[in-house]
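Hi U.,

Before I forget, here's the chain from the pilot set. I'm dumping it here mostly so it's searchable later in email.
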Amino acid sequence: MTEENSEKQKKGYIDWLWLILLAFLIRSCAFEPYNIPSSSMVPTLLIGDYLFTSKFDYGYSKHSFPFSLPIIPHGRIFNNPPTRGDIVIFKMPKDQSTDYIKRVIGVPGDVIRMTNGRLYINDQMVPREFLQEEDWLTEAGIQRYSRYRETLPNGKQHEIYEINDVQVYDNTPPATVPEGHYFVMGDNRDNSLDSRDFGLVHEDLLEAKARFIFYSTNGDGYFFQFWRWTSFLRLDRFFMDLTK
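Structure:
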């Protein structure tokens, strides 16, 4: 190998290292894709939705980085608290290794409880408007859900699914949200493992804010099969804003 070729190879390695570093920085500090693996956020998010999430909204902790690298050993820098209604990605409090996605329902100072299937924030029942009944294919078969539009105290609206008001987590004791913690719930209220089960989410476990859906598929085809796009791509969900 000539000296000139050796120098070019060396520069090539350096370029690759810079590209890897740039990708690491973008994924850690700016944007990261995320796909929906479960039905806990139906009807807002469906299995097969692919999202872009933003890392900078809430600041950074070690969980902002791939594999939770302890670049920030403790705490959070540039901390900016989420607001009620945000859809957030975070580490599961019990093991701090599994990524979860839920909606922020309770912020510091709130008292959250469920009574007979209704959500109460600070002793005020959160209003919900019945929209329609829908059949949804679950792992156990077809399930009939009631679809509601819920309005949080800050005016943020989103839609939820309920089987009925007598499910496992439809009656819970009051939970006071302390400073630096959040109460999160899935929009599929009767099929969601959330703060009603695993407790509050500490701010250091927050990873990102869900921004928009960039791709959605029902899983019955591959992207290169363009002649079948209308049968498996959910085109109406492309670029759906999740921050409203």
